[in-house]
């Protein structure tokens, strides 16, 4: 029998009030039911927010280094359970075991980094313009944080958000993607084992329409961190503005890898195969466009096509598999629709281009790694996020043209250039409009201690990861201590 999971609200594991549930299935074998989960409604959200609001009053007073100690312990538990969690994640969302191990490792890295940041929530001291007066600015927690996460990194992305939120003294209501609720539940269990008190962390499973919307509109939620589509992000920003919530949005991408005529082509090949087809192309940083200099275009595209055709599809738990399934039937359908759109626009299918239903694949949502040639910058497949194993190849004549094509999208998350000319590399770093630029490496590969996020319609200016995310989860409070023993009227007296 499939395992029955519950919400965790106010220190208790509970079913949905309605008793309704939804199933979590393996995208590599849709017959396999991993578990059933509560289909929550606004009532569960209200209970969770109420619990988090109450718990905030005591949690905010726990010394930050003590909160950091809990994150350290969570990292230790994640380390001990890494292989178990990785296998669970592969069953749940499909990417190969090598990648799910990396997903868990990113959570481990984030835990240990958060533990150290708990001792570095630095403020500022500045001189006063008046005698016998002390000025400082300090960072304080904000309140209840709504954490809404996607399915493609079901451990890493929640830890990017939840660990800093807790370290800073906020409490959390966690709404994970309904495609990956089991890994999310495991994370909450680990935080409880590590010592997070009841009410400080809550998880409510269910749909974005019910659970997500209620969290965003709830008057007692102080800040929202969301990773997902740009369309949904815009809606969240609109709704949250009614209560002036602080909102962090990490949204879509249409990332490009530029390959110049002086590039190390073997290295660039490894990069584009990993960037385009790792996680089945289901990353916001996935390499969706390949921009190649005309002098090496034919040779390099031939290399890419030859190797893309050799990538092995299948269950990510098997050792010989390179690419797993799409997350669900709807996503595979979307991928195929984009391939048909590309063909209709004049793109040529050089590899893949169809659903994969061979031996061992019939029960999963597999799509062949696809390379589209003869793509022009104006085509939809060169401008819109596909979120699948589809690579659009564009020919250019110069670095300036390459950068212009790279910037020719409403997104601006990640970017990459392969060149051995240091001058060209720095020009690309300067001129590409993206939150992340890699030189001689693919568009994927973010590290936990660096800022993560993008420009344009990829987000709203906040960053995850690194030291910058701790700015999002804290407020600045200015403090003045006057020990002069008399009234000092700032600019009024200072001007005399």
Q: Can you describe this structure?
A:
This protein has 496 residues and is an alpha/beta fold. The chain folds into 2 domains: 269 residues, Aldehyde Dehydrogenase, Chain A, domain 1; 185 residues, Aldehyde Dehydrogenase, Chain A, domain 2. The chain is built from 15 helices and 20 strands. Strands 15-16-17-14-13-18-19 form a 7-stranded mixed beta sheet, sandwiched between helices. The longest helix is centred in the N-terminal third of the chain and has 21 residues. The protein is globular. The mean pLDDT is 97.
Molecular shape: globular
Radius of gyration: 24 Å
Number of separate domains: 2
With strands numbered from the N-terminus, the spatial order across the biggest sheet is 15-16-17-14-13-18-19
CATH classification class of the largest domain: Alpha Beta
- What's the CATH architecture of the largest domain? 3-Layer(aba) Sandwich
The CATH topology of the largest domain turns out to be: Aldehyde Dehydrogenase, Chain A, domain 1
Rounded mean pLDDT is 97
What's the main sheet like?
7 strands, mixed
In CATH terms, the superfamily of the largest domain is Aldehyde Dehydrogenase, Chain A, domain 1
Classify the helix fraction into a percent range: 25-40%
Count of DSSP helices?
15
Q: Low-confidence runs (pLDDT<50, min 5 residues)?
A: none
The fraction of residues in strands falls at 15-25%
DSSP strand tally: 20
Secondary structure class reads alpha/beta
Distance between the termini: 81 Å
């Amino acid at each position: 029998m499939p395992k029955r999971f519950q919400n965790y609200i106010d220190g208790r594991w509970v079913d949905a009030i309605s008793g309704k549930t939804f199933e979590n299935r393996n995208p590599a074998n849709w017959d396999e039911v991993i578990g059933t989960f509560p289909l929550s409604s606004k009532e569960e959200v209200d209970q969770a927010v109420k619990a988090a609001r109450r718990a905030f009053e005591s949690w905010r007073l726990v010394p930050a280094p003590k909160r950091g100690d809990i994150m350290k312990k969570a990292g230790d538990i994640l380390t001990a359970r890494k292989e178990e969690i990785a296998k669970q994640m592969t069953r749940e969302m499909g990417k190969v075991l090598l990648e799910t191990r990396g997903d868990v490792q990113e959570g481990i890295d984030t835990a240990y980094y958060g533990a150290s940041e708990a001792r570095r929530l630095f403020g500022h001291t500045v001189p006063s313009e008046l005698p016998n007066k002390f000025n400082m600015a300090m960072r304080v927690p904000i309140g209840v944080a709504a954490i809404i996460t996607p399915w493609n990194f079901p451990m890493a992305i929640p830890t990017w958000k939840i660990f800093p939120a807790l370290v800073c003294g906020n409490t959390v209501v966690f709404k994970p993607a309904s495609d990956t609720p089991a890994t999310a539940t495991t994370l909450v269990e680990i935080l409880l084992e590590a010592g997070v008190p009841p009410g400080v962390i809550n998880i409510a499973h269910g749909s974005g329409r019910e659970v997500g919307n209620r969290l965003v509109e709830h008057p007692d939620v102080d800040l929202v961190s969301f990773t997902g589509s740009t369309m949904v992000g815009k809606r969240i920003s609109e709704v949250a503005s009614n209560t002036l919530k602080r909102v962090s949005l990490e949204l879509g991408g249409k990332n490009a890898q530029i390959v110049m005529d002086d590039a190390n082509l073997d290295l660039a090949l490894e990069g584009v195969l990993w960037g385009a087809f790792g996680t089945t192309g289901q990353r916001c940083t996935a390499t969706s466009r390949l921009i190649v200099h005309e002098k090496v275009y034919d040779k390099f595209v031939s290399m890419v096509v030859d190797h893309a055709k050799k990538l092995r599809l299948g269950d990510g738990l098997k050792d010989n598999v390179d690419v797993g399934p799409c997350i669900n039937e709807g996503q595979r359908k979307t991928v195929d629709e984009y391939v048909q759109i590309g063909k209709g626009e004049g793109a040529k299918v050089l590899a893949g281009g169809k659903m994969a239903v061979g031996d061992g694949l019939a029960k999963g949502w597999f799509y062949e790694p696809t390379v589209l040639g003869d793509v022009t910058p104006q085509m939809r497949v060169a401008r819109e996020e596909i979120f699948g194993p589809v690579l659009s190849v564009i020919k250019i004549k110069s670095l300036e043209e390459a950068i212009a094509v790279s910037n020719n999208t409403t997104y601006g998350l990640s970017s990459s250039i392969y060149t051995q000319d240091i001058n060209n590399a720095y020009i690309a770093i300067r001129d590409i409009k993206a939150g992340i630029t890699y030189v001689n490496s693919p568009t994927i590969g973010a590290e936990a201690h660096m800022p993560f996020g993008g420009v344009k319609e990829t987000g709203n200016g906040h960053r995850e990861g690194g030291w910058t995310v701790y700015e999002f989860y804290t407020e600045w409070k200015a403090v003045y201590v006057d020990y002069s023993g008399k009234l000092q009227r700032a600019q009024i007296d200072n001007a005399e």
